[in-house]
Energy-coupling factor transporter ATP-binding protein EcfA2
Amino acid sequence: MSIKAVDLNFVYSGGTAFEQHALFDVNFEIQDGEFVGLIGHTGSGKSTLTQHLNGLLKASSGALYFNGENIYEPGYDMKKLRSKVGLVFQYPEHQLFEIDVLTDVCFGPKNLELSQEEAEKRAKEALALVGLDESYYKQSPFELSGGQKRRVAIAGVLAMEPEVLILDEPTAGLDPRGRDEILDVIKGLHDQRGMTIILVSHSMEDVARYAGRLIVMNRGSKVFDGTPKEVFRHYKELEAIGLAAPQITYLVHDLREQGVELDPDITTIEEARKAILELWEGADGAGAPEHEADGQAKAGTVGKESSGDIHV
Ligand SMILES: Nc1ncnc2c1ncn2[C@@H]1O[C@H](COP(=O)(O)OP(=O)(O)OP(=O)(O)O)[C@@H](O)[C@H]1O
Ligand SMILES: [Mg+2]
C-alpha cells in the first residue's frame, strides 16, 4: 500500500498569460505508516503537491498511484480517494462554518453519505483523538482558541477515517503551546494508529524531531529525499535554497570545531543532550551528575574542566 508519484508535472492556468509551471517531474513513493516531512522555501510547490495527493488538483502530465491504482484512469473513484487521503489545509479554521463543533466535524462523514448516527459516532471519536471532550460539542467553533480551532479542523478530516493524513503547515501562526499540542496529536496518530503522515512545515526542528523521512522541494522539483540526518548533512545546499539545518546542528558543528567530539549528524536537542551527557560521563568516570542519560558512555575529549559551561 503506497502513494506513488511518477513524473508529476503541474501547470497553473496553462495556455494563458498567467501560466505557472509549479511541479517538474516529481517522483517518489510513500509507504504505509511513514511519517514524511515536506519542506521547501515559499513557492516551492509543497501545497500544490499535497493537493495532487488527494485528487484536488490533477497533474498536467505524469501519474499518481494510490495503493497500486492510477488515480487518473477513467472511472477511478475520486470520492473514495478523498476519504482515504485526508488533507488539512493551511489555516483550516477558515473553513469552520457550522453552528457548533460537533456539527462541523460531522460535515465530512455526512458527505460520505453516512447516517446521522454513524457520522456523529465518527465525529465524537475524532474529537476524542484530538483531545476535545464532550464539553466542546455544543460550543461555537469561533469561540475557541487558535490551537483548539485547529484541532477541530483536524478532527473534521479524521472523522472521514483516512489512511493517510496530510497537514499543510498545521502549526502556522500558533503559540508554542498550541504548536506542541498539535504536533503531539499528530505524533499520536502516527505512533498509536499507524497512520501515514505527510507534514508540510517550515520548521526544521519539527521535521527533524517527528519525521522519519524528508522530501525537499525547490522551485517545483524534488531536490532531496531521505532521513532527516541524510538530508541535513547537505545543510550548505539547503541554505542555498532558502532552508537550513535545525539550529542545534549548527551548535554541534561549532562545538566540533572547538574539539568537542560530537556526532555531526545530531539534529535534535534530545540527541545533543544525550551525546553531551555521555561525553561528560565518559570524562568524569563514574561520578556522573544526577540525570537519566542512558546507554554506554563514549570516550570523550571533553571534561568538566575543558567543557566550560555546557548546560544541558
Ligand atoms: N492558484 C494559483 N494560480 C497560479 N499560480 C499558483 C497558484 N497557487 C500557487 N501558484 C504558484 O505555484 C508555485 C507553487 O506554489 P505553492 O503554493 O504550491 O508553494 P508552497 O511551497 O506551498 O509555498 P508556501 O510555503 O508559501 O505555502 C508558486 O510559484 C505559486 O506562485
Ligand atoms: Mg503552501
